[in-house]
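Sequence, please.
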């Protein structure tokens, strides 16, 4: 069973999505159902405010836990996770047919959706245009998001680095 925390309706980002994150519940801070910090209201008059601030700082500093399995940044995904990448080919590990011992090619959760970091590095962004589907755009466009479709087509997986890179002819 995965631990998911409902998005807070007054959150500034990711509102309306079921993504686990650090969340203040009264004077305690949880990630999923795991208590990560408790503030004592008897010794700290601002304990509940401190818990909220701690949760916000944790999310900024550590990224978010995996939205499918709840793995914390730097930890391996849980078995059966839909988000985990195959370390050999860069595709979805759950449906991978590389035919290798996948236990040797584990990639930890980084706190970001796989490929988004590379898209930002390469300057690859897109937006959905009414009637035209996904269109490339500049990162300054208010509707811009990382272009993961382009990443899958135009980048090359480097299994030694465990990430997508630009093909040699593009460098």
């Amino acid at each position: 069973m995965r631990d998911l925390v409902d998005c807070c309706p007054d959150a500034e980002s990711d509102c309306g999505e079921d993504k686990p994150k650090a969340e203040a519940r009264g004077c305690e801070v949880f990630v999923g159902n795991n208590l990560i910090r408790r503030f004592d209201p008897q010794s700290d008059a601002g304990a509940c405010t401190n818990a909220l601030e701690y949760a916000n700082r944790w999310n900024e500093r550590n990224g978010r836990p995996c939205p499918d399995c709840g793995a914390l940044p730097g930890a391996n995904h849980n078995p059966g996770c839909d988000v985990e990448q195959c370390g050999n080919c860069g595709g979805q590990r759950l449906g991978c047919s590389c035919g290798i011992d996948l236990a040797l090619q584990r990639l930890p959760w980084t706190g970001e959706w796989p490929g988004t970091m590379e898209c930002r590095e390469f300057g690859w962004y897109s937006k959905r245009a009414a009637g035209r589907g996904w269109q490339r755009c500049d990162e300054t466009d208010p509707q811009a998001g990382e272009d993961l479709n382009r990443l899958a087509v135009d980048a090359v997986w480097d299994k030694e680095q465990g990430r997508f890179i630009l093909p040699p002819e593009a460098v």
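The radius of gyration is 19 Å.
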